[in-house]
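Customer escalation, tier 2.

The customer says the design service returned an amino acid string that "doesn't look like it belongs to this structure." They asked us to rerun it and document both sides in this ticket. The original structure tokens are below, unchanged.
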């Protein structure tokens, strides 16, 4: 019966894992399609209500307005999170070019819908407060516009360059989705489905182990359950350690920037932490092997494995609260699943260590399982009801064993009543007769011996 329950549970875990894997692949496919939709946007025109000034010395901090027209050739409505136009002038010095920021503006705030077709946004521009050029002579003007657009759960940053004057610009190069922005939900979704696969096996199997530990009574079975528990613990740490290495679709996140390799003392600390994490994996597998082959030392290092594993959230992997920021995103589901799995492993391993140290430890009577206490009370009530009936049967059996047939005595006749003198006389005659008879017997034996010898 229990094997059937375990088999059913494993089938359910496998089906859930396949579902989450399918969702993971669906997110990858949808992200590629949404990114392609965003890349089809076109910057059509920039029109300003000003003309190119002849001198920049007196324009510091003044404003003007620009209308930016963006074309959405798709049939889907997108959302714009940021429009950041900048106007530059470029000047060559002996074959080397230098770019000077003349004016910039921006729209950054609530989402704005980008409907199919042309969409015009009015942006307030401001001349830079420290323009290094004195006049636009011998320079070339160009615009550089950054857009942050979201389609579905995918968000991209588009960078567009256009050659034109400050008043009008219609010649734009093809825009490129250079990076993801902080509003992108692709990475958190992918991370959530990956951790859901891990959590399905960890949380589900730990629940089954706790139930089995409540029923286990012999040390041999507890050790078998301990083998499964510590193998699961090692796999959990290994998966959490490898999660940051899982490749995610390009482009990468722009919010966090490039991650440079650690060097110096920080690099040494990271190497030590990773080595210590690998040590937890090896220690867990070693404990599992020891329990499998019934080695006495395995019961000794099991509490050590638990104590070391309890420090796991403080490692720089996406399990602890402070280290899961790049994977939380707007939801943080993936980090929550890992934390729940971690606490389930702690509870299961703690119970396992108690049962290994004392196989007869009645943890169900100490408030650790109300359901098991209810089962125990029901069994006690059943015994209480059946006890009088059993006692009556035992008493009847005992009486049958001890029962004996009654004896009856019948005196048919009575002897003579002799006096004391008569009894003494009879005793003296009996003694004399016995001695005479003994002497006659020994005398015959002696005469027979003499005759034989002659």
């Amino acid at each position: 019966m229990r094997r059937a329950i375990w088999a059913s549970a494993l089938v359910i875990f496998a089906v859930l894992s396949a579902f989450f894997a399918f969702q993971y692949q669906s997110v990858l496919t949808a992200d590629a399609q949404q990114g392609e939709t965003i890349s089809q946007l076109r910057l059509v025109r920039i029109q300003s209500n000003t003309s190119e000034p002849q001198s920049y010395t007196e324009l510091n901090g003044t404003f003007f307005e620009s209308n930016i027209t963006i074309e959405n050739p798709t049939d889907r409505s997108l959302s714009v999170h940021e429009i950041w136009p900048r106007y530059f002038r470029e000047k060559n010095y002996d074959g080397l070019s230098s770019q000077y920021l003349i004016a910039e503006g921006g729209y950054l705030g609530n989402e704005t819908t980008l409907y199919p077709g042309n969409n015009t946004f009015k942006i307030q521009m401001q001349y830079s407060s420290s323009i290094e050029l004195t006049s636009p002579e011998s320079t070339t003007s160009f615009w550089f516009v950054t857009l942050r657009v979201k389609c579905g759960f995918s968000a991209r940053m588009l960078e567009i360059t256009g050659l034109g004057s400050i008043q009008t610009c219609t010649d734009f190069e093809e825009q490129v989705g250079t990076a993801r922005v902080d509003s992108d939900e692709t990475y958190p979704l992918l991370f959530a489905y990956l951790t859901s696969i891990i959590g399905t096996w960890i949380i589900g199997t730990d629940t089954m182990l706790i139930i089995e530990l409540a029923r286990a009574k012999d040390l041999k079975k507890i050790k078998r359950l301990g083998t499964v528990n510590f193998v699961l613990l090692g796999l959990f740490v290994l998966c959490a350690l490898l999660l940051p290495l899982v490749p995610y679709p390009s482009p990468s996140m722009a919010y966090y920037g490039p991650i440079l390799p650690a060097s110096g003392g920080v690099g040494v600390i990271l190497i030590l932490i990773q080595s210590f994490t690998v040590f937890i994996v090896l220690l867990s597998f070693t404990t599992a092997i020891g329990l499998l082959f019934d080695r006495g030392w395995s019961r000794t290092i099991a509490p050590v494995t638990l104590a070391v594993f309890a420090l796991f959230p403080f490692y720089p992997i996406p399990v602890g609260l402070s280290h899961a920021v790049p994977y939380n995103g707007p939801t943080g589901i993936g980090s929550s699943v890992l934390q729940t799995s971690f606490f389930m492993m702690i509870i299961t391993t703690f119970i396992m260590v108690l049962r290994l140290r004392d196989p007869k430890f009645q943890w169900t009577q100490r408030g650790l399982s109300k359901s098991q206490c209810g089962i125990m009370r029901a069994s006690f009530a059943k015994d209480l009801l059946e006890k009088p009936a059993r006692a009556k049967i035992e008493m009847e059996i005992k009486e049958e064993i001890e029962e004996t047939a009654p004896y009856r005595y019948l005196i048919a006749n009575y002897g003579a009543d002799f006096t004391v003198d008569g009894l003494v006389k009879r005793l003296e005659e009996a003694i004399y007769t016995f001695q005479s008879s003994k002497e006659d017997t020994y005398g015959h034996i002696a005469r027979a011996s003499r005759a034989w010898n002659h």
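Tier 2 assessment: The sequence is consistent with the input. Residues 255-262, 316-331, 363-370 have pLDDT under 50 and may be disordered. The CA atoms of residues 8 and 164 lie 69 Å apart. Sent an explanation to the customer and offered a walkthrough call.
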